[in-house]
Amino acid sequence: MAETDQAPPPSDQLAAMNLTDTVEKHAFSDRVLIRSIVGRPDGGAGLAGQRVRAGGWVKTGREQGKGTFAFLELNDGSCPANLQVIVDTGLAVLSKLVATGTCVVVDGILKVPPEGTRQKIELRVEKVVSVGEVDPAKYPIPKTKLTLEFLRDHLHLRARTNTIAAIARIRNALAFATHSFFQEHNFLYVHTPILTTSDCEGAGEMFQVTTLISESEKLEKELIKNPPPSEVDMEAARQVVSERGEAVKQLKAAKASKSEITASVAELNKAKENLSKLEERSKLKPGIPKKDGKIDYTQDFFARQAFLTVSGQLQVETYACAVSNVYTFGPTFRAEHSHTSRHLAEFWMVEPEIAFADLQDDMNCAEAYVKYMCNWLLDKCLDDMQFMAKSYDKGCIDRLRMVASIPFVRISYTEAVELLEEAVKGGKKFENEVKWGIDLASEHERYLTEVKFQKPVIVYNYPKGIKAFYMRLNDDLKTVAAMDVLVPKVGELIGGSQREERYEVIRERILEVGLPLEPYEWYLDLRRYGTVKHCGFGLGFERMILFATGIENIRDVIPFPRYPGRADL
C-alpha cells in the first residue's frame, strides 16, 4: 500500500494520541483549568510529567506524615471533580493551606499516583504562588454536608459547594442549549423590555415601578430645609413687580434714554422671574401627588403607571409580525405572595414566537426544544448530571434519556379531564376537584405524566375561561388553541398557544375579560395592519432545571432567589 493510501489508525489509537497533547492554559489566565486535567477520558494520566499552574479553593485538606506534607483537594468550579495536590512542608505553612475554603495557586508537576488510589493524576507542588487564607472557626461553609435551606442564608458563598456549582454549570449549559437550538432554526434573539406598561397575563400581580415615593421623600426633606414662601413673601414679591413695572412706565413717559429703560426692564423681568419661582414653590405639597382623590401618575417618571414585566411575549410578537421567527430569554417578575417550592418573585422565561405557524407547529417546536435540551445535558454535562444522580435524584439521567428519545403523548384538555375522572372513579384521590372547566392542578399534571402515561404529555385546546385573551378562539367558541407541555417531576414545563390574529375577535376578547382597550391599541395594530397567523410559548427556565436535576425547591436552582421577605444581595 502506498504511503498516502495508509488506513487511518483505529479510533482508540486516535484517542491515545490526543491524550498526550500538552494541557493548555486558560486563554485569559496564567493557569490551567482543573477540568482540562481531570476531565479527560483518562482522568489526566496521559499528562504525567507536565508542569502546570493550577488554582482553586480547597474542598478538603489534611496534613500527613507528621506534618511533613499535606494533601489538598482543589476545585476551581470548571467541573465537579477535584485535583489532588500534594504540598511539602518546606514550601508553605501547611496549617494555612488545609482549611476548607482556602484559595491557593500552585506550580507543580503532574504525576501518576501509586496504584490502588482513586485519583488517576495528582499535582506535586514545586511552588506555592499565592494563598487566600480562611479562618476555619468563622468560615460558614465547612466541609460537612449542609442543607440547601442553610445555604440560602449564605448566597454569596453557596456557589463554593458541590451542589450549587453543579447546578450553575447545568443552568449555563441549558442557557447555551437554548440559544443554540433557536439560532440553528433561524430564530432572531430579541431583547424585550424589563419595564412595561402592559399586563400580559391579566393577573394584576405585578411589581410597580415608580419614582413618586422617592421624589416625595426628597421633597419633604427639601421643604423642611427650605420652607415654601408664606403669603407675606408672595405679597412682597408682587409688590416689587408692581413697583418695577411702574418705574418702567414712568421712564417711558419721561422719554428716558434707551439704556435707562433697558436697565429698568431688566429689573422688572428679574422681579417677575423671582415671583414665578415663588409661585411654583408655593404649589409644592408634601406627600405623593394626587388628582381627584387618586394618585396622579402623570407626575411619575413615565407619566403613567409602569411595572416589572411578567412576560416578554406581547412585545416580542411585534417582531414576529415583521421578521417571522423570534425568541426572547430574560427575567420576568410576579408579585405573588407564595411560599411554595415552585414559586419565585423573579424568574427567567424563554419565549419564542413563530409567524405563519399554527398550534400543531407550536407543539412540534416545544417538543423539539425540550428534547434538544435533554440531549445537550447528556452530551455536554454528563459529569454534573452524574453528581446530581448520586446526590439527589438517582433517576434524573434516565428521565433525560426517556424524554429525549420518545414521542410526547398529545391529548385534548377534554380527554385529559375524562382520564382524570376515570382515575377518580377507580379510587384515585385528588385534593383538587376534577371537572371540565378547571385549570389542571400540579397533582393532575403529574398523575398524567408519572402514572397514566409515564412520559411527557402535551394537553391542548383548553377552556377559554381559564386562558389569556390573546389565545385563538376555536370554532366551538368554548375552547382556545392553547397547549401545555407536562413532564414528570414538575408538571407544567411549557405553556403556549396559537395567537388570535383576527382583529374583531381579539378586540372582543379583551373587553370580555375586563381589560381596557387603550393600553392594547398597539397590540391591536398588529391585527389591523398585515395580520398573520402566529403562535408561541413560554418555558419557565428554572422549572426546566428542576426537571433536569431532581432538585425539589426552585430557590436552589437560581443564583439569587427572590421570594416574599427575601431579596439578598
CATH superfamily of the largest domain: Bira Bifunctional Protein, Domain 2
**Helical coverage, percent range:** 25-40%
Count of separate DSSP helical elements: 16
Compute the number of strand runs: 18
The count of domains is 3
Q: Low-confidence segments, ≥5 residues, pLDDT <50?
A: 1-20
Shape, please? Answer: flat
**Structural class by sheet pairing and helices:** alpha+beta
Radius of gyration over alpha carbons? 34 Å
Strand order, largest beta sheet: 6-12-13-18-17-16-15-14
Largest sheet: 8 strands, mixed
Task: Give the oligomeric state of the chains in this entry, treating copies of one chain as homo and distinct chains as hetero.
Answer: single chain
End-to-end C-alpha gap: 68 Å
CATH T-level fold name of the largest domain: BirA Bifunctional Protein, domain 2
- What number is the mean pLDDT? 91
Strand content: 15-25%
Topology diagram in text:
Elements: H1 11-19, H2 35-38, E1 51-64, E2 69-75, E3 83-88, E4 103-111, E5 122-132, H3 148-151, H4 162-184, E6 188-189, E7 195-196, E8 208-209, H5 212-225, H6 231-253, H7 258-283, E9 290-291, E10 294-295, E11 306-308, H8 313-323, E12 325-333, E13 346-355, H9 359-380, H10 382-391, H11 396-405, E14 409-412, H12 413-425, H13 442-452, E15 457-463, E16 479-487, E17 491-498, H14 503-512, H15 521-528, E18 534-540, H16 541-549
Parallel strand pairs: 3-5, 6-12, 14-15
Antiparallel strand pairs: 1-2, 1-4, 2-3, 4-5, 7-11, 8-11, 9-10, 12-13, 13-18, 15-16, 16-17, 17-18
Description:
The chain is an alpha+beta fold and about 575 residues long. The chain folds into 3 domains: about 35-145, Nucleic acid-binding proteins (OB fold (Dihydrolipoamide Acetyltransferase, E2P)), CATH 2.40.50.140; about 165-210 and about 305-555, Bira Bifunctional Protein, Domain 2 (BirA Bifunctional Protein, domain 2, 2-Layer Sandwich); about 210-290, no CATH class. About 35% of the residues lie in helices and about 20% in strands. It is built from 16 helices and 18 strands. The protein has helices at about 10-20, 35-40, 150, 160-185, 210-225, 230-255, 260-285, 315-325, 360-380, 380-390, 395-405, 415-425, 440-450, 505-510, 520-530, 540-550, and strands at about 50-65, 70-75, 85-90, 105-110, 120-130, 190, 195, 210, 290, 295, 305-310, 325-335, 345-355, 410, 455-465, 480-485, 490-500, 535-540. The strands form 4 sheets. It has an 8-stranded mixed sheet, sandwiched between helices. Strand 1 (about 50-65) and strand 2 (about 70-75) form a beta hairpin. The longest helix has 26 residues, at about 260-285.
